[in-house]
Design brief:
With about 90 residues, this protein is mainly β. The chain has two helices and five strands, in the order E-E-E-E-E-H-H. The longest helix has 4 residues, at about 75.
Length: about 90
């Protein structure tokens, strides 16, 4: 099975008072991908999900993960979702 490269390292079990997982902007593979409404592959460890960027401020990014495997949403993340983990 192919491992998906993560666009944004997010602990999917961490939520704040918004009810959404969050991460630091610095944890993005490419900060240019961080735009409200963008679809990203997110996760940490073996956990992966496709999530939509809900909000961004100077330091933090909030995302809304979709249920199910990344492969189910490949059309949302395009070639990034098909990339093998390079690290």
């Amino acid at each position: 099975m192919m491992s998906m490269e993560v666009d944004l390292r997010v602990d999917l079990n961490t939520e704040d008072d918004t009810g959404l997982p969050w991460a630091f902007v610095r944890d993005a593979r490419d900060p240019a991908l961080l735009k409200e409404g963008a679809w990203l592959v997110v996760g940490s460890g073996n956990a992966r999900a496709v999530a939509q960027v809900v909000e961004i401020d100077d330091e933090l990014v909030w995302v809304r993960p979709l249920p199910g495997p990344v492969s189910q949403y490949r059309q949302l993340v395009g070639e990034r979702g098909a990339a093998q983990k390079a690290r």
